[in-house]
Amino acid sequence: MPYWIGYATPIGMKEILQTSIPYDALAERPLPGIAPLNIEEWLIVDDAYATQMTLRNSLLSAKTNLVSALSEGALPAAQEVLDLALEQLAGRSDFEFRANKVRCPDGRVVTVDRAQPLRTLGQIIQEDICLMQKFGDEHVLTGAVLCFPASWTLSEKFMRPLIGIHVPVAEYDDNIAKRVQRLFDGVRAGRPLWRKNALWYDDPSLFTPRREDAPRDPVPAKTGAYLRSEKQCILRLPKTEAVVFSIHTFMVRREKVVQAPATK
Fold first, then answer.
1. How do residues 160-206 score in pLDDT, each as one tens digit?
2. What is the pTM of this model?
3. Above pLDDT 90, what percent of the chain?
4. Is the CB of residue 71 less than 8 Å from the CB of residue 242?
5. Domain coordinates of the chain in residue numbers?
């Protein structure tokens, strides 16, 4: 039985899928695979918005401490990322703003609670949000709303540095760790970055936390029924200088995966 099965919610066991991924998820890039990001393309509303948000709200309500965490010192950074996200959404036609309330594309109205900025944001956008702040030589995870963990558990990673967060990822060796730390040190406000990943799954569940001592068995690319891809964005907040690591999760059936033709 999978480690996370005891955490599942009724809606968490149904398929919540997109019809496509807006980039070639399987195209290979050298690690860490970073590219510039247009800030207008940071927050995505796709065809799974309504169903993903139903699951997110269920988790935030029923399993709050499993999917959100915020250190006391990270509150200003969390409020800053909330303000930044609302600023980006304010210019879009699929969101409506009135006083301290936001009407979302699925018709829900969310009250903006600045005392709980990450939980508020988790009710509005599909992206999971992780706050990274530098202590000494490393960036530490000081806050997160993480409803769709891909085989990791927030409670194990909270207040840990980058290299500890990536246990037990075999590919995350000392060389990659140094490159990623330089990336977090170097990202500048107003110049966000993004990367992607892709993993095959036999189960499309989005809420799949796992302990470090119970890693997921890889699903072969030849047999995987679903492709899970995360669009991961990295932004520097100008006031607090915290780094935002956001995750938009796509899950599509195998037959919906589209790859660009190989170039000669």
1. 988 767 554 545 556 766 778 888 999 999 999 999 999 999 999 99
2. 0.91
3. 75
4. no
5. 3-41+52-71+127-256
